[in-house]
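My main concern about presentation is that the manuscript never shows what a single data entry looks like. Each protein is reduced to its one-letter sequence and a matching series of backbone shape codes. For the editor and my fellow referees, an illustration may be useful. For illustration, here is how one protein appears when written out as sequence plus structure tokens:
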Amino acid sequence: MWLVTQDFPNNIPFLLYLLALKTIVCQTVTKSPLPLWNWECIDEKCLPLRATQVSKLQSLETCNMLCSSMQIWPQPTGVVSLSTTAVPLRADMVQLRKVQAPSGKVHELLQDAFSLFREDLRLIENEVRGYEEWRSLSLRIVVNGSGDPRMRLDTDESYSLSLRPAAETDLAGVLIADINARSFCGARHAMETLSQLVWLDPYMGTLLILEAARIDDAPRFRYRGLLVDTAHNYFPISELMMNIDAMAASKLNTFHWHISDSQAFPLHTNSDPELANYGAHTPGDIYTPEDVRAVVRRARMRGIRVLIEIDAPAHVGHAWSWGPVRNVAWAQSYVSGIRTIMSNEDAWDLNTGSGAWYEENSGAPYNSWQRVYEHRPWVKHAAGIVEGGEATVWSALLSEGGLIARAWPRAAALAERLWTDRPEGATRPVHARLDAHRSRLIARGIRPTPMWSMWCTHNTLTCG
């Protein structure tokens, strides 16, 4: 009050003064501070240096993309040539210029996949600023192989991707992305790789894209799966959809849906509706045929097959034991020379170390992402026998909202093991790459668990 009477005999000017002061303070606090660090590439590592020249600042995200040729996840198996320069891009300036497909179904799915590609860019683009030298991106896709868009064991998932500035004078300022593949799935993988050559620069506040690239790529194994159990505990369809999005971003190609077990049968079938009526945990914990079709449709657009596992007869016992009496008969066949899908509990069970839901804890250790990544069980088997592998997520100790955090980013570590199959002993350089991929998933609305502290993201030479 003394200030009011002494310095401001009239209260109204003082109130105006306070409002003006509040405006100045709020503007000062809310305005983004200038970056303190400039990230420089030294020996293929991004190191922070004190910022001195504002006009030449480089963010960690841009440094990571320009410093190493291995920011793509999973790492390509063939030729990789990436530019060390980047240009600004807007998501609404991306277009599909040409599609050449062997069938109408492939053509339709390619257009759907392109829409998903553009949506991924929009998810990471938080605002559009007024740059004078925007580049537009034009895709040309050629699939000259199978007209069947479905993912199968014999599907050729290879692709080649070329990114370059247009040579035509009438296309000045346009980047051309040429994709060639033998299948829809291969072309979709190429679009996923292309999306990983685009990132948000927080210093500039805009998307950047590499100015040129050449990538030839193909997976090491044909089966790259993730098993998700929805019988012990129910996951809503939205959570399964998010998991499929994460699988597509990591180029896993098989969603193994363990939909029933001894404890529950949550799948409604038109032929035997009593199975779900008697077998589901609650009337709300049931997957309808429409739910299944929606999951299959979402997965197919992302180059993923859905394998629904209904164990019979033992694992439908919970439903059958309460239902009407029926005679059941089945035949057993003995097959020799079976090709193998590996899923070792000691490395790829993503539940170990989380306790036991039945009887006593098994005492099995937690399977870290490093253990998942280093595991190569096929080295002990004859060449050509192993078709691939899968990790498992059992839901006995999980509830709604827990699937993504339990599986990711460890499932991404499995994805690179099965796609690239790098030699053992290479996990330290992988830390920063997997952390960058985790950030990419977060930008797309997927919430994987942290793999280390944020301090380590900024100090990769110390951590790992």
Notes: Residues 104-124 form the longest helix (21 residues). Residues 1-9, 14-18, 23-31, 316-336 have pLDDT under 50 and may be disordered. The first strand starts at residue 37 and ends at 42. The two ends are 59 Å apart (CA to CA).
